[in-house]
Design the sequence.
């Protein structure tokens, strides 16, 4: 039997088109129905968030504390919220937490704040200090703060120390192990893979590239890191001791004292915490709930105490859409958070072009009289950093004072973009400095050679055909190093001109060395210590403003973006109504469990390598602080 191949192809092609069209139609119909259902639920009266009278506001923060959230796809965020699915790396916006605490202070419906911090992941000390100050201010209203938990990490306990009472489960966990900086080193691995790293740097302490040159931390890096880690640890101890009413000596820093006390506590972490006066009471979950019921009454369902969760309270008190600013004088805040990369970048990462564009908007806005550049960055592209710094200079030329407000970290490129500001304000625990430059790339000629792959050819110059498949010539090495030397000279010259110092004075405190904010003040690298609020006040004073409004300059959202943003915010409450999520649950972080640690290790390696891979400086020159992260 003969068959016509063309006819068969047309048949199957037509059949597939029908199936594919039907598939898309079904998916689109389901999508439309889901959206209609969500909008219908959101707009119904019985789903509006209501704050119960005499309630406890539960600060059940979940995720990393950040200055600016990383941009996510609106549809992914919507369905994650609607279906109660957890984000891979949830984030908590610091400004939202501070606003929530301030709102609760004046809210007669809120009787107490309950800190439930089991799901709070990473939060730098400077951000925790800001929340601690907000909690202290909250208590001036006469309202109490209670901290409760199955366990406390070191960061979680810092916030808990601001509570009037700290409760811990009798089988719970609390151990304060100090700060450290430990990282992985890849020299031997690169040798086994026959990968040849080419490193060009200036700065005795510029250790960002050490993981690719060594199998351990250099003595110079150890000395520098130990200094700023000690500063942060001392600040941590002083703050906690002040809140708890004991001496800073009440922190065990060697195994001898730790084991002695742990033996006396019969091997119980909870009893050890009680003996050290770190907590006020050991209570089971049921006992905690019963005690809170006695203070604020029962919830509507009778299962818990009368409460409202953080996200629900934020939705109930925060306008769904940004309010229009009035036409008066303004102090603008521009947030520069994340790694500095070239070009336009989404929120959560600093783009040379996109961040400069925000500063330019502030420059041309006639109502904006001063600008605060809020920096939370370990640096990145030297070129992108310079593009941003030039906009700072243009703002000053336009008669608008600029104040750099350093958050958790403002090092390397983060310091570069801050240097030209009229004033630099840092937190005492800001990680800053790291004034240095490096360039790095890998060549794979040996790796490929082991696989039997070789590169050869001809060119019209000695440097034609440069690439990762060929060895790096001496001439190219000298060329790159000269460029790095010039970059470092530009950096220290910039700092010298901006800080009224000589290049020699800057060089002594530069060389890639990292400092705490308090030490940077002593060295003349910053002008004052304080928070973002203080930086805004200074900016207003420089602009001679008596009355002003504080505004945030960020990427403008389209009407569609605003719609999706409101829908996403609302869907969290919808999910709770549908039973997908609960506003208040007990969740243990299982601090001693080792499940998933291998996965975390792999993720750490991938993150570190991906961080370097995304660098896109057009000249391959970077001012980046890889060590500016506390373990």
Sequence:
């Amino acid at each position: 039997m003969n068959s016509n191949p063309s006819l068969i192809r047309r048949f199957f092609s037509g059949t597939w088109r029908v199936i594919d069209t039907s598939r898309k139609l079904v998916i689109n119909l389901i999508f439309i129905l889901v959206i209609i259902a969500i909008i219908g639920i959101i707009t119904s009266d019985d789903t509006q968030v209501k704050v119960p009278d005499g309630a406890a506001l539960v600060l059940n923060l979940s995720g990393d504390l950040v200055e600016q959230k990383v941009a996510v796809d609106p549809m992914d965020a919507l369905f994650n919220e609607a279906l109660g699915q957890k984000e891979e790396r949830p984030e908590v916006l610091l400004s939202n937490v501070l606003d929530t605490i301030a709102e609760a202070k004046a809210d007669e419906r809120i009787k107490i704040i309950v800190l439930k911090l089991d799901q709070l992941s990473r939060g730098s000390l400077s951000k925790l200090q800001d929340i601690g100050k907000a909690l202290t201010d909250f208590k001036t209203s006469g309202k109490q703060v209670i901290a409760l938990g199955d366990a406390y990490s070191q960061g979680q306990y810092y916030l808990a120390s601001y509570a009037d009472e700290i409760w811990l489960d009798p089988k719970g966990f609390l151990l304060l192990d100090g700060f450290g900086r430990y990282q992985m080193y890849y020299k031997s691995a690169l040798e086994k893979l026959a990968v040849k790293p080419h490193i060009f740097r200036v700065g005795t302490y510029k250790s960002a590239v050490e993981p690719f040159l060594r199998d351990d931390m250099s003595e110079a890096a150890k000395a520098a890191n130990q200094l700023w880690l000690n500063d942060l640890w001392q600040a941590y101890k002083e703050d906690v001791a002040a809140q708890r009413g004991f001496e800073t000596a009440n922190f065990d820093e060697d195994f001898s004292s730790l084991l002695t006390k742990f033996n006396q506590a019969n091997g119980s972490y909870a009893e050890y915490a009680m003996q050290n006066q770190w907590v006020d009471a050991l209570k089971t979950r049921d006992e905690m709930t019963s005690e809170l019921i006695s203070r604020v009454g029962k919830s509507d369902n009778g299962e818990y105490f009368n409460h409202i969760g953080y996200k629900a309270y934020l939705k109930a008190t925060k306008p769904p859409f940004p309010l229009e600013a009035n036409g008066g004088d303004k102090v603008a805040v521009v947030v520069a958070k994340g790694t500095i990369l070239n070009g336009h970048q989404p929120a959560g990462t600093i783009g040379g072009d996109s961040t400069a564009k925000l500063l330019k908007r502030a420059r041309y806005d006639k109502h904006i009289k001063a600008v605060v550049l809020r920096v939370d960055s370990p640096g990145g592209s030297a070129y992108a950093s310079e593009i941003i710094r030039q906009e700072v200079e243009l703002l000053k030329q336009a008669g608008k004072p600029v104040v750099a407000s350093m958050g958790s970290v403002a090092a390397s490129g983060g310091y570069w973009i801050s240097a030209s500001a009229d004033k630099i304000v840092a937190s005492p625990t800001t990680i800053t400095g790291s004034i240095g430059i490096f360039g790095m790339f890998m060549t794979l000629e040996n790796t490929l050679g082991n696989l039997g792959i070789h590169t050869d050819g001809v060119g019209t110059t000695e440097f034609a055909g440069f690439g990762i498949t060929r060895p790096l010539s001496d001439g190219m090495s000298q060329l790159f190093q000269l460029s790095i030397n010039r970059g470092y000279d530009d950096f220290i010259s910039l700092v010298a001109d901006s800080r009224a110092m000589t290049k020699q004075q800057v060089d002594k405190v530069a060389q890639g060395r990292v400092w705490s904010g308090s030490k940077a003040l002593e060295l003349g690298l910053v002008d004052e210590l304080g928070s973002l609020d203080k930086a805004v006040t200074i900016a207003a004073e420089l602009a001679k403003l008596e009355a002003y409004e504080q505004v945030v300059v960020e990427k403008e959202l389209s009407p569609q973006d605003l719609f999706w943003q409101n829908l996403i915010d609302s869907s969290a409450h919808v999910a709770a109504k549908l039973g997908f999520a609960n506003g208040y649950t007990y969740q243990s972080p299982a601090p001693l469990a080792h499940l998933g640690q291998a996965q975390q290790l792999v993720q750490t390696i991938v993150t570190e390598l991906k961080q370097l891979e995304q660098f896109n400086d057009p000249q391959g020159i970077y001012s980046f602080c890889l060590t500016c992260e506390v373990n």
